[in-house]
Structure formats: C-alpha cells, structure tokens
Amino acid sequence: MKLFFKTILLFALILSSCRVSLVPDYNANIYQQIISAASRNDRIYIDLLQANPDNRKFSLYAKRYASLETAIQSIYLQYQARPHANSFLPIIENIQTLFVKFKNEHQSQATPLSADQVRLYQQYARDYWKPLLIAENALK
Amino acid sequence: MPFNVNDTLADMMQVLKKHFAQDWPLIKNTAHQFLQARISRLALLAELRLKNQLPPNFFAERMQDEELLLQSELHAITIVTAASAQKAARAAMQIFMKAVSKAITF
User: Fold this and answer.
1) Could you tell me where the DSSP H helices lie in A82-114?
2) Total count of domains within chain B
C-alpha cells in the first residue's frame, strides 16, 4: 500500500512540474503597451479629422507616425522573445503592414486626405488592433 | 446582383461555425464581435463608394486589407481557444493534485 502511495506521489510530482503551456502567461505590461499604442494610433486619426484639410499634410504628422511605428516594433520584439507567443506574431505583422501602408498612402497622396478617407483609416486602424487585444486578454 | 452585407456576413459566420465546430460555444462571442466590426466597416466603405467620394484605388486597397484583418481575427480566435484549453488543463491538474495530497495525508 505504501509503495502504491509513493508511486502516486511521484507521479503527481512529475505531473505538477509539467505545466501545460499552449500560450504564454498574461502580461499586464504588454497589454498596457498595446492599449497605449492603439490609443495613439486612434488619436492621429481623431486629430486629422478635426484639422481642416490644409492641416492634414503628412509632414505635420510624420513624427507621430515614426514614434508609433517604433512602439509597434517594440511590441513585436517583446512577443518574439516571449515563450509560446509565436501565434501572436502574424497578428502584429498585419498591424505593422497596415499601419505602414496607411502611412505611405497619407505620404504619397498629392491632395489632402478627405474626412471620409480619414474616417475609414480610423475604422480600419481600430479593427487591426482588436485581434491582438482580444488575444492578449484571453490569457487572463 | 446587389451585395448584401448582412447575408454575406451571416454566411461567413456559418463557415466559421462549421470550421470551429467543437470550439464554437467558446469562440462564438469573439467571432460575433469581429463580424459586427466588419459589418460597420464595410457599410461605411460601401456608403462612401456609392457616393463616389473616394479616390481611385482606395476602395480596392481597403478590400485587400480585409484579407489581412480576417487572418488576424482567425489567429486571435485560435489563441482564445488555446488559452481556454490551457486553463481547463491546469484546473483539472489542480483537482488531481489536491486529491493526491488528501489521499497521502489521510
């Protein structure tokens, strides 16, 4: 009987040391960084909407785009270094792709962005952050 | 043939439901959230397109972006499912550990 309990105890100890890890543990710090970057992204479009068309030139927003691009890259690097977080990487790559695409469109458009264009960019930007927020939140 | 956003999205929801059959109750809310966002996004895009207020190519570019958004949403749904499975496995392990320690101290 003693041997039986010892075996069970050993088995339990081995099992307890093997934590099931399909996804990373929740990280409140990264979650806050995502919220902050998404808010700053949204703010660019809010400010563009409030500005009159002449004040929607790319040059007036270039620094904010650059700073935000850096923040997104920083989030990407943190997920790259985080164990079991590979499934998050395509989501962040898509955020980077769309963010840079919208920035380049803003930069290359000869005429000022229209309010309708800005509204659409804002909607798409809100929605490209959403999957990352939902996925990180699911780890709680 | 006119494009009906709601019908199309309902069809997409059915495809997701079929694909994630077993996990559907788990991801239903997340999938619904994504599809609702898609409805308002496409409705706005369609409205501006019909009013002819978008520069050439702008509509086509946004339609391309839809594919990337859908990819991200499917990745997020997969993560939600995996996170839930992980929580369930850990909870089951805790019950097992408690039962074993009770048996040992008995």
Assistant:
1) 89-108
2) 1
How far is B90 from chain A, CA to nearest CA, in Å? 7
The closest alpha carbon to A75, from A61, A92, A63, belongs to A92
pLDDT 10s digits, B31-80: 989 999 999 899 999 999 988 889 889 999 999 999 999 999 999 999 99
8-state DSSP, A111 = S
pTM: 0.88
Boundaries of every domain in chain A:
24-137
Shortest distance, CA A67 to any CA of chain B (angstroms): 23
For the stretch B59-71, pLDDT in tens is 999 999 999 999 9
Contact: A20, B69; criterion CB under 8 Å: no
Cβ–Cβ of A134/B80 closer than 8 Å?
yes
Provide the shortest C-alpha distance from residue B19 to chain A (in Å).
18
Tokens representing B5 are: 């956003």
CB A71 within 8 A of CB A40: yes
Q: Which residue range forms the structural domain that includes residue B61? A: 5-105
Count CA atoms within 13 Å of residue A87 on its CB side.
20
Which of B34, B82, B93 faces A15 most closely, judged by CB atoms?
Answer: B93
